[in-house]
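User: Show me an example of a complex going from sequences to structure tokens.

Assistant: Sure. Here are the input components:
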Amino acid sequence: MVSGMSSAPAGVAGALRRANRWGVLEILLWILAVAAWFFLPEQHLILAEIVNFAILALSLDLILGYAGIVSLGQSAMYGVGAYAAGLFSAHVTGEPLSGLLVGGLAGAAVAFLTGFLLLRGADLTRLMVTLGVAAVFMEIANQADWLTGGADGLQGVETAPLFGLFEFDIFGRTAYAYSLGVLFVLIVVARIVLASPFGYSLRAIRDNPLRASAVGIPVNPRLIAIYTLGGAYAGIAGALFTQTQMFVSLDALSFQKSADGLMILTIGGTGYLYGGVVGALVYKLIQDVLSNLTPQYWQFWIGLLLVAFVLIGRERPRALVRAVSIRLARLFAGKAASRRVAEEKP
Amino acid sequence: MAELLVLEQVSAGYGRATVLQQVSFGLCEGEAMALLGRNGVGKTTTLNTVIGLTRQQGGRILLGGQDIARLSPERRVEAGIGWVPQERGIFRSLTVEENITAVARPGRWTLEAVYGLFPRLEERRRNFGNQLSGGEQQMLAIARALVLNPKVLLLDEPTEGLAPIIVEELLAAIRWIVREEGMAAIVVEQHARQILAITDRAVILDRGTVAYTGASGTLAADTAVLGRFLGIGGED
């Protein structure tokens, strides 16, 4: 399905290597994220939550930001991944990495099987189909209480120490490091996928699906492929949530989860991979500050800020990131590098 | 030479409207064909029908003996058709290099080869599609079709709306592709004389049907036919 990645013709490999270079800001972001583990020990729990939201938003960015698939149903894959990891832990083993794999595979399977529903119709149809799919899975989980625990949530989830060494404690110390490691791997994989002919073809499809087809891009298989990959990412996010919380309930499949992902991506910006990270950080910080200031009305203020933010301009975070990248490139590598960054994707 | 692409009694159009009526012609391996006619006679529709963007209402389209009429556009490209659309169709959010690598397939035409043909594209390889001039966009559209390594290249008005100096550059590149590389091509073009000079055969469409078929050299000298179907005199 992703033949464009494996059969790069002559000359293309060099171009792909150039496209896959890490930026200064990107490296700096990861240094800060790792430094937070050492210097902000009292914030590990919220940081782990931010990373979880970032992965959920990243899964949405893959399909929306790169392939133009609008979705209100990421919670279906997130929730199924969460329950799959929870059931795997409760009935097979609590080993986290294999549980993560199970969650990812479950999310991918749901996306693959429902992806065919997205091939007909445009944005509104896709919104309704994804919303409907999520609602169906929510109701299945609710009715199958013998398996999922229904409204009471799944009991008996335990997460074994990571690599047999690191216990998941109540302070989120292991949870944050683990979540950050998972996010890093997912970003690396996404970078490789997106800086490939396959990734470029997704953006071509997003620009104009009919034209993409007429220049030889297999539109439907590629849409299903990226939707499946996005589903795997959402499933991993769900599994990570279950493993770090050692609990999973119907909330994982709720519309609110999909809405959170979309809201975070709206704040952080689409189509540059880090929109989820930036958005999750900003969203959680605002939520934290507002819930402290006005515990009863914080959702009102969040809603108001979101409306204002969208009206002012959703492209601003991305433009800000780009401007900072250029400044940093100037600082670290002189004018030649800054010119290179300026030429890169806006 | 064996016929590579054959249109047999092809009727096609958009929705219920019929634009092409029983159009028939063939294109041999290594042959370059000029597809001419006044505005609105069905030249672009013919190319769009070959690539699969219209509703084919009748007839057969054979590529290498295989009927491709039921194939999707992407399958037709896979079968060996490269299309350069009239409005170029550059993907705006991709750079020059990404536009090319998104579709490239193994073969003689590589990234380096198209950069060799259009050095300007290499200079602008990091620029986005919407940052290119019309001529550069046309070069990119041709490069993008070439890296598909097609058997047949369809060029829809490649010089439309471009400055004369750019037209010369593009015609030289097209001449190289069809003459030196021997790629089979159908070129729709308003500048009849310029394109007749670099093609082997010409087909003139009139109101959706084939009105004339003959050698390009013969047509170039036939002022009566040129005047009747294309409205151009001997000095055009």
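The lines above are the inputs; the final block is the predicted structure for all two components together. Residues 1-7 of chain A have pLDDT under 50 and may be disordered.
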